[in-house]
Amino acid sequence: MGDNTSPLIRLENVCKSYHKNLVLENISFSVNRGETVTLIGPNGAGKSTLMKISLGILEASSGEIHRDKSITIGYMPQKVMIDEVLPLSVRDFLYLRPNTSYADVAEALATVRLTRLADHPVQSASGGEMQRILLARAILGKPDLLVLDEPVQGIDIMGQQEIYGLIAKIRDETGCGVLMISHDLHLVMASTNQVLCLNRHICCRGSPEFVQRNPEYHAMMGRPMEGVAIYTHNHDPDHDHEYHHGHDHD
């Protein structure tokens, strides 16, 4: 582990172009230990490109990326293709990760509450279970930074809330930082410290509550503010007092 006070990762004025087409423009942000930063934006906004630049998989066209020199990173992809005919238990699928012991695997499965599936074929896992298996894989080795690309893709609401709860619990217990892509602000509100609204550039940033009330976010997502306020009101009774005032209209 490196310096506990400096950001795990910091991007300054990062730009990315493909064949003169600018896909990311002047992106600056950092992720600290114990903090979750969530990237939200429409399809084609550059979220996955930005994540790959943060991971070092892609090079930026310009700008600077600073990573704490000794940090380890755990990555959870959107999905993993597993050969249907390959007989592989959940335990062995996780054990395939380099430098992993069966004790590490047992601990990771316990953390994501899937110990009962250890001996089951990985192909038999449901969508929600598979996402938790991928989360277990990402936390093997106790990384300093967890990078999660839409960790709740294709799961029902209850399963989504469970996964976001697990991610927050892992962050709080280990002190790791989390960089996450999500499509839905409302689901990640409880477990996110900072939201970046991305549409090639950063349209707005701040706490989930600030972003939720920001017209830039609603314009970017193409949604009327009033409808979102009602949706949130129904799903978030603890914050009722915040939604009694009127909303500005364009």
Strand content bin: 15-25%
- What spatial order of strands do you see in the largest sheet? 5-6-7-3-8-9
Helix count equals 9
Write down how many β-strands occur, each being a DSSP E stretch of 2 or more residues.
9
Amount of helix:
25-40%
Radius of gyration: 19 Å
Low-confidence runs of at least 5 consecutive residues: 226-250
Secondary structure category: alpha/beta
Mean pLDDT: 85
Major sheet attributes: 6 strands, mixed
Reading the helices and strands in chain order gives EEEHEEHHHEHEHEEHHH
**Termini separation:** 48 Å
Identify the overall geometry: globular
Describe the structure.
By secondary structure, the protein is an alpha/beta fold. It has a domain at 73-141. 33% of the residues lie in helices and 24% in strands. The protein has nine helices and nine strands. The strands form two sheets. The protein has a six-stranded mixed β-sheet with strand order 5-6-7-3-8-9, with helices on both faces. A three-stranded antiparallel β-sheet has the order 2-1-4, covered by helices on one side. The longest helix is centred in the middle third of the chain and has 18 residues, at 157-174.
